[in-house]
Amino acid sequence: MNPAIALESDKQQVTAVITHLVKPGREQEYEQWLHDISAVAQQFEGHAGVSFIRPQDASHPEYVIVLKFDCYKHLKAWLDSPVRQRWIDKAQPMVQQAQNLEVLTGLETWFTLPGKLVQRPPKRYKMALLTAPTVFAVAQFLSFILAPVLVGLPPLLRAFMVTIATVFSLTYVVMPRVTRLFYRWLYPR
Length: 189
What we know:
It contains six helices and four strands. The protein is α+β, with helices and mostly antiparallel strands and about 190 residues long.
């Protein structure tokens, strides 16, 4: 499955989220397949890592593969490669249905929650409406909190340190909570 996606820039990191529903009794064979295909994908230009979310419930053996590449062009080269297609063909007897593939870029990764089934990203205007005030609030709060610690640094370095603290706070603490709070609005049924 090739995602139809247009990016403003081919220079941003992309994440492909692939889900497979594995047939009962084929989990061990599938685990080996995951290990082998991951080793092959690592040889492709731009590969930036892979992680797996294994099934939490034996009655619904869904595996999630989170695959990162440095840019869409390199991800697409892997997704469209004959090598990958051969590996996908090998997986067919182990899975209950064709893979589900989502490609996420930029802000969309802030709006995913662990433990939730992967779905289409929220509308861009919704992401922008939540991100702008959240970034503003976090940056202002951290500027105030960090001001005494950073007082002796040059202004540009101070701004850089606050920016780093803001991005890490947003990524690991704030945006998951904001996403939970506004989940029904972001992902209407």
